[in-house]
Amino acid sequence: MPEPIITAAEVRRAVLDPEAGSEPYILSGARVEGALALDGAEIRRLVRFEGCRFEGPLTLEGASTLAFTVTECTLPRFHAPTAQIAGRLDLRGSTIDGGDRRGAVNLVHAHIAGGLRLDRAHLVSPEGLALNGGGLVMQGGVFCEDGFLAHGRIALPGAEIPGGLWMHGARIVMPDPDGIAFLGDSLRASTVRMNQGFRADGRIRLRGARIDDLLSFHEAELLGAGASLMCVGAQMEALDLRLARPAAGAVNLRNARATRLQDRPRTWLGPLYLDGLTYDWLEPTATTQREDCAHRLTWLHLQPEYVPQPYEQLAAHYRRLGHEDEARRVLLVRERRRRATLGPAGRIWGGLLDATVGYGYRPWLAGIWLALLTLLGSLVFRAHTPVPNKPGEGPPFQPVAYALDLLIPVGGLGQRDVWHWDRPWVQNLAYGMIAIGWILTTAVVAGVTRTLNRT
C-alpha cells in the first residue's frame, strides 16, 4: 500500500486548527512534502507523528506546545530553539539528518517540562552538531539509550537536567578523534551515565560541570585524541572511571572534586592531570594496603610533570583511613620526585636526606647509620692503643663510648677530649666521624622539620 502524501501546509493548518480543541493530532505512515514550519506558534493540542517521512525540516522555534512526538520518522532537521514544551519531547527511533553542518536537532534555550527521549534515534551531522542543547532547561531527564547513535557533536553547555543524562550504550561517531564529541561545560544534572558500552570517537569535555550524584564512565570507551576526558573544575558526588579499556588520550581532572572515586589500575595509560583533584574516598585497588599504595603511586606517576598536591591528597586519604605507613610512603615518593626537579646542589642534599632519614619519614634510618658507624669505629679503635691528652687524667678508654662521643655532636661522654691517636689514619677516621656526626644530625633535624612543616 503506497504511503499517503500530505503537504506541510496542510499539516500546519490541521495542527493549528482552532476548532479541533484539545483533540490530539496524530499522523502515521505519511510522507510530508515541504518544510513544516511551526515557528512561534501556540499549539494547544498534543501532536504525534509516527513512522512519517518528512521531505523538509520540522521547526518549532519560539513555539509553545504540549507534549510533542516524532517517533520512528525520518526528517532533515528538527529545530526548536527557545521552544516551550509543556510535556515530553519524544524523538525515539527517528533518523534526523542535518547534513554536514546544518545540525540535526537544535534545542538551544528550549524549556521542556517532561523528558527528552532519544532512544534508538540516529542523529546525523558529521561536521556540525548532531544535538545542540546549549542552555536547555529540563524538568525531566534526557535519555539517549537502546542503540542511540550520533554522527557529530552533542553539545549541552549550560544545560539544566534535573532528571539526569542517560547514555547507556550510546555511541558518538566523529570524523576527527581530536574533535569534541560531547560538550558539557557548566552542565548541571542530577546524574550523568555514559556507561555500559558507551563509546565516543572524540573528546568528552565537562569543564565546570556540576553533577549532584554519579558521573559514570563504567565500561565506557573514550577514544578521543589529545584529552579523551576533560573534567577541569567539575564537581560530582561520585566519579566512576572503571573504563572498559584505557582512554586513547589524556584524562584531565584538574581542580575537580568528587566525594567518592572509583577506577581500575589496568585502565591507567596516561597521561593523567590530577593537580587540584580532591576526594574523600578512593575505592581500594588491591586486597592489601601495601599493594593498593603501590597502585596509587603508579597512578600519580602518570602525571606528565611533578606537582605536590596529588601526593598530599593521597596521603591525607590514607591518614583518614588510619594507614599512617602508606601516608608516609606517599610523601616520601613525593620528595623523591621533587628532587628530580632540583639543581645539582639540591639533588645532592636531597639524596643525603633520603639516605639518612628518608626525608624525615624514615627516622629509624638515622639509628641504623649510627649503629653501623659506632660498630665500625669501635672495632678500629679497639684494635689500636690511644694516647691520653693528659696522662693520668680522665676516664679509662672505652671504644664504643669513644665512637659514640665522636658521632654525637651535642653533649659528650667524656672520651673525645681525653684521648687522641698517634697513627694519622686512625686520627683522620676520628675526625671523619665527627664530620659525619654533624652531617647526620643536621639531616635528622632538617628532615624532621620538613615533615612537621609540610604534613
What layout of secondary structure does this protein have?
Blueprint: E1 5-7, H1 8-15, E2 25-28, E3 31-33, E4 36-37, E5 47-50, E6 53-54, E7 58-59, E8 64-65, E9 68-71, E10 74-75, E11 78-79, E12 84-85, E13 89-90, E14 95-97, E15 105-106, E16 111-112, E17 116-117, E18 122-132, E19 137-138, E20 142-143, E21 149-155, E22 160-161, E23 165-166, E24 171-173, E25 180-183, E26 188-189, E27 192-193, E28 199-200, E29 203-205, E30 210-216, E31 221-222, E32 227-230, E33 235-241, E34 250-252, E35 257-263, E36 272-273, E37 278-282, H2 289-301, H3 309-320, H4 324-339, H5 344-357, H6 364-382, E38 387-388, H7 399-407, E39 419-420, H8 424-454
Parallel strand pairs: 1-3, 2-5, 3-6, 4-7, 5-9, 7-11, 8-12, 9-13, 10-14, 11-15, 12-16, 13-17, 14-18, 15-18, 16-19, 17-20, 18-21, 20-23, 21-24, 21-25, 22-26, 23-27, 24-28, 25-29, 26-30, 27-30, 28-31, 29-32, 30-33, 32-34, 33-35, 34-36, 35-37
Antiparallel strand pairs: 38-39
Helix pairs in contact: 2-4, 3-4, 4-5, 5-8, 6-7, 6-8
